[in-house]
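pasting for ref
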Amino acid sequence: MDKIIVLIGAPGAGKGTQARLLQERRNIPQISTGDMFREMRSLDTPLAREVQEIMASGKLISDEITYRIVRERTSKSDTAGTFVLDGYPRTAVQAEQLETLAGEQGKEILAIEVDIPAEELMKRLTGRRSCPECGEIYNIYSKPPKVQGFCDMHPECPLDHRADDNEESVKTRLDTYQANTAPLLEYYGRSGRLSKVSGIGDVEEIYAELSALL
């Protein structure tokens, strides 16, 4: 049976990288809620106009409208088979709505958590640096540039350090993630549909472990 793969992972866990690899290597489409919301800004459909009005007013987009966006996107031909959801569901309410969608599409849900200790996430996020010229990502702990503070490929470019990649901001983001995600993990754990892969180690090793679950 085709699957809806729900990838769950904290900021910096690497789930986006793994979703891209599944798309490139196994032709499993990566459906990102971030991409969907960005697309809504330029579309001219009744649902898109509704979303644009909500965004313009500064209000939060409700679970119901988010579900309608996901449902509309996953009704396209490229998601006729198995696909990966990246960034949805985020709450137990959204998880229940996804059950309805899976039933309509005749698919089963497989939730996979990319699990990684908080200390490692802190290093990944606070140590992150990027080149403003080419976008290359470095990390002062795990992937430092040859010359401290400068890109290997553009040695004239000082590396950027995002203002919110500081310890206090990162801790707040991770605490918020844990609080919001705990009910979701419990929801899928109760039904025996939650698997875990370690987010520590080589990207290829993590991919092999993830791919084996499918």
